[in-house]
Write a structure and sequence with these properties.
Layout lengths: L3 H4 L12 H4 L4 H8 L5 E4 L6 H12 L3 E5 L5 H17 L5 E5 L6 H12 L4 E6 L3 H4 L2 H4 L3 E4 L5 H14 L1 H4 L8 H8 L3 H13 L6
Parallel strand pairs: 1-4, 1-5, 2-3, 3-4
Helix pairs in contact: 5-6, 9-12, 11-12
Length: about 210
């Protein structure tokens, strides 16, 4: 069975929680994505605030071919293979594919250099996610070809929405009727990290804390 965070991962902006400054109604990133003219972008923010989820929503709405690489276990060879696939894809489609690189700050200079030509000529659209300041971790030529969007820690109102959604919408949690009496404790332990929050809720559900 998939983890709770995966089971409840939203597929559109309306179900996405937090980052109203980017994806709320008439917010800049949402307007760009809905226009269909998606530039190369870098999402910068702390862990568990919705960077990967946002990327999947963008890919889902754009209907573009989507490639996913993790900077932890991918090298220049993997990047070049994706570029070749993108070039072949472009022969049959006017829509250039999206390449998502998680933790792009872990890519070496040579790995980032290998992306430059394809990003510049539009072979692919790059979306990078990072917890580190891209001004220091991404090479200047690549950075200049990307728009930077900053994601913030989730607020208590966002965490409340996530808690309520999990309890009321997840099929597995609905099997166990329980209530959360100490939401402040969840706020503290999760630290504004949605993934961590869901992990805690899953742990609570596994101990079957029944509501009175």
């Amino acid at each position: 069975m998939k983890p709770l965070a995966e089971r409840l991962r939203p597929k559109n902006f309306d179900d996405y929680v937090g980052q109203e400054h980017l994806v709320g109604k008439d917010a800049p990133l949402r307007k760009i994505v809905e226009s269909g003219n998606i530039p190369s972008i870098i999402l910068w923010g702390p862990p568990g605030v919705g960077k990967t989820t946002l990327v999947h929503i963008i890919a889902n709405l754009s209907k573009k071919d989507f490639y996913n690489l993790s900077a932890i276990n991918s090298g220049v060879k993997d990047v070049r293979e994706v570029i070749e696939k993108a070039k072949k894809s472009n022969l049959f489609s006017k829509s250039n594919p999206i390449l998502f690189i998680d933790e792009i700050h872990r890519f070496s200079k040579s790995q980032q250099d290998s992306l430059l030509g394809s990003v510049e000529d539009g072979t692919l659209t790059l979306i990078g996610a990072t917890t580190e300041n891209p001004s220091f971790e991404v090479i200047s030529p690549l950075l200049s070809r990307c728009q930077i969007y900053i994601l913030k820690h989730l607020e208590e109102k966002d965490l409340d929405k996530l808690i309520d959604r999990a309890i009321n919408e997840d099929d597995e949690l609905k099997k166990i009727k329980f209530s959360i009496k100490e939401r402040d404790a969840l706020y503290r332990f999760s630290g504004g990290d949605a993934r961590k929050l869901y992990n805690i809720l899953e742990l609570l559900s596994s101990t079957a804390i029944l509501a009175p």
